[in-house]
């Protein structure tokens, strides 16, 4: 297999990792006002993802870095083209990242409420906009050469639209898909990770949002077939994804939380696979020009074989190691969390150590 | 201002801001690991208190470093797409490695450390903070190796068809002297800042007569960390200077506002007049010192700005006869001096702490108290000045000798778009800075937690539904 194909697959793996993992913690963040009716249940929700969200987000950073290393022209064209959308993503990620750490650091309801909104907005923006961005990648956006900027065609390809070009119907639908799927995925995770009233509320939310997400996702993935390069693979894949989603909801209904989470993760895996399989060998589709002459592809956008070889060695060694220790974290913190397990809200700096009062 | 200049401002602002949090993180994590190890070894409760106290300050700071770091990785593509196209084959590799080798390590094990007190056996829990510390250092190494490529590009060739850089030796990129000296220098200066932070906070607590027994050893440790790292900062800075003379002589000349090539060149201490002209008036200088710093001999030759400008004009004719290869001298000259001066103040402070707090004494001086409460800013801004010098001193190049900054921007970015992002980042960062500092002060004032010397892991094993030991 060509190294460029290997790297196309590896980038897909990184995005799958990101959407499966950060997908649920973005979902939990968005569900904060939906499921977290009181302070204690909101803290249960936040603590259910507190141990892992940062590690999950590294999948995004690594996907970004790997795209830069393996397909620099893809990275350059996409990141400069989707400028304002990515700015909003960054603002969201900054707000929620700081919010998790700072929310409990002052004993004030107003303070916590503000950070709660930072978590909700900061989770919703990336959840929506990553879908929109992928919609433009796989469905196409205006990409054309700039005269005289580079000696070769691929190097001169740039996104020539604007923020409103990005917000086309298909991409907006994609955004709604990621938004609702992540919400439901987050609810399914919460059902698995908590007990008591939060778990019950999460299961209800998972079913309600999950059905909406199912409709949107099926519509999106069917529409996507119009852009797919190989419908004979992507259509069955999309259908299997839909079946997995229904299985996830069915398992939620039966209270089999572990299976539900496995199935919703499988759905995301299959949906992302569908997108990438239908995209290959293109990495960014252009809506301009005949016969895809302005498409960025694994061949014209990639690094040379030396870089790809080096990075393949690093990835082959490191990815399993990362998976092992990240998996181990999930094992260490596998216990369900309930409201009764949440220590009292830190009143001051020293009291958020539980033994402060005991020791006087 | 055009989109390119705005992008430069944005990169400068976001990077300097990001690097206010990073040095504190890079150094403090090792000190926290050290405190926890001391607790593990001796079982003395004060070390556990110090671990938790400085651990909390570290985490408040770390959160800011993480979120502002994401902006950095995105910005290359967003604002510098031509640069990204040109160097992606080379520059992307260390960035991707940083993700795979460093970011996963630090984020995962830090999560385990924060929440794992009652979930992991004591020894394993101690290991998590050391692994997180290793992750932060590795991360610094990869990004500095990437930066070193911009200062001194190696291990690549230019593809004749596309005109873009192509990697041909990853080991040259990762292990060139520019990279490991920058790492040495950065890590040492990070310890300087962290030592100052630990010493100043501890000294403040002692002077307030609070938890004196806990903070006395920490103040002493902080002062010694400053002194040792000050020596290492100087050694690595000297190594850096010698490498710079060979690799970027223009930056050295600009640091000194040295306009004509000179043997036995003096080190200028203070200078007036228009430094961006073609000459400068020096008031105070040390004869032969610059030559000694640059070449190791007081009679060595140091190239001047005007001669280098002429040399580059003939070396790089593609930029035309009017190309200016001289960085903005006032910034490089003063950046260089601020970096050294502010760092030296930290070293003096350390001596002062050791003297004033010797043998259980506590200073009463108000002047010292004021100095103590702002001292951490000196080495911190010293590092900012150092980076501003390093990056501005490389101008007009973005990759030295290969691509000029003016050709590295995103070609279609509009002025309005960059204004929007510049304003959004600046406002958001300003708000977060206020919040962060307020939280740090609050948790400093709260003092070290009174902990009982127990084993949360053992307790948790006995009682499965027990409250979480630590929760957000």
Overview of the structural elements:
The complex is a heterodimer of chains A (360) and B (472). In chain A, 71% of the residues lie in helices and 3% in strands. Chain A is mainly α and 360 residues long. Chain A has a two-stranded antiparallel sheet. In chain A, strands 3-4 form a two-stranded antiparallel sheet. In chain A, helix 1 packs antiparallel against helix 7, helix 9 (169-193) packs antiparallel against helix 12 (257-279) and helix 10 packs antiparallel against helix 11. The longest helix of chain A has 31 residues, at 109-139. The termini of chain A are far apart. Chain B has one domain. Helix content of chain B is 70%, strand content 6%. Chain B has 15 helices and eight strands. In chain B, the strands form four sheets. In chain B, strands 1-2 form a two-stranded antiparallel ribbon. A two-stranded antiparallel sheet of chain B has the order 3-6. In chain B, strands 4-5 form a two-stranded antiparallel sheet. Chain B starts with a helix and ends in a 10-residue tail after the last helix. The model of chain B has no long low-confidence stretch (mean pLDDT 92). At the A-B interface, helix 3, helix 4, helix 5, helix 6 and helix 13 of A face helix 2, helix 3 and helix 14 of B.
Features:
heterodimer; A: about 350 residues; mainly alpha; Formate dehydrogenase/DMSO reductase fold; two-stranded antiparallel sheet; disordered C terminus; B: about 475 residues; 8 strands; about 70% helix
CATH architecture assignment of chain A: Up-down Bundle
Total of helices of chain B: 15
Principal-axes geometry of chain B comes out as: globular
Instruction: Tell me the strand order in the biggest sheet of chain A.
Output: 1-2
Strand arrangement, major sheet of chain B: 1-2
- Summed over residues and divided by their number, the pLDDT of chain A gives a mean of 92
Strand content of chain A: under 5%
- Strand percentage of chain B lies at 5-15%
Largest sheet of chain A: 2 strands, antiparallel
